[in-house]
Amino acid sequence: MAKIIYDIYRNVKSGSVSEGRYFGRILQTETLNTAKLARHIAEHGSPYTQDVVEGVLRKAESCILELILDSKKIKIDGLGTFYITGENQKHGTISIAKFNPKTSFKGLHIRFLPDQATEANLSSRSVLNQASFIWAEDLKREKAEERPEGSTNENSLTPDPSPQGEGSENSGSGNSGNSGSSVPTLTISRSGSGTSAVTVGGNAVNSGSQIAAGTEVALSVTPAEGQTPTATLNGSSVTLTESDGTYTGTFQMPDGNATLVINSGSTGGGGADQN
To answer: In the beta sheet, which residues pair with residue 120?
Structure first.
């Protein structure tokens, strides 16, 4: 049975509420390129040869990029949705006339929202329930017992660059555990009479949480009746997708501190709530 390899590390960031506590991070054994993925598919009951599968994958790659650059979303059933978002320059522009997308946008980001349909739920919590795990230290011991005397282990393990969910009891912050590193802070401002949730790796995130740059943050918003919610990160709109009255979206934590503003829909006002 396939197993996810994990490691355990100690947070040594001085002054952190989780200083001295232990957390897990996911390790990878290798990165499969298109050719290797095509070979894997071809060898797992596919009626198509590797070259045919690889050709389709490469065509899909170029077509997905072409279509999302045409302001379209691409939903691959059972996998998820690809779409594009814009990251604004830090201070914006002083007027509409001064806005030039080539310079006013700092960059464009390709996003991926996992499919959360009942028949193919790829949400973080569902994947966690489906996974089997093995501790990296146990794996090393198993490999050592299997290797002939005098041989070396050529397999390498690559850590997840943005370990997530440093304990649900401390806001799910994503510190890497390295002392001296600067971890961005996410400020969350909520308004409206609907409800909203912000999570990292399935754990709740509150305003003021430190989250490693590049970490994927998920939103779930249920608006007030008849309302459409909105969300912005540092002034740039976060795309929300509606399903059964609930709106979901994701974004990657930027390199610096960020402010997330969520309006869940208001039928009669309501001030911002820093949570």
So the answer is: 117
CB atoms within 10 A of CB 52: 14
In contact, 265 and 227? CB cutoff 8 Å: yes
Helix, strand, coil % (nearest 5) of the chain? 20, 35, 45
In the 8-state DSSP scheme, what is residue 69? Answer: T
Reference 162, options 138, 140, 184; nearest CA is 184
Measured CA to CA, the distance from residue 95 to residue 20 in angstroms comes to 48
With tokens 């990160």, the residue in question is 233
CA 74/CA 55 separation, integer angstroms: 19
What residue spans define the domains of the chain? 4-30+73-274
The reported pLDDT for the residue numbered 174 is: 41
Under 8 Å between Cβ of 108 and 85 = yes
Reading the block at residue 80, the tokens are 């998820």
pLDDT score recorded for residue 160: 59
C-alpha to C-alpha distance for 182 and 159, rounded to whole angstroms: 19
Least confident of 23-32, 119-128, 186-195: 119-128
Give start and end residues of each alpha helix (H) in the chain: 34-42, 50-68, 101-104, 124-130, 136-146
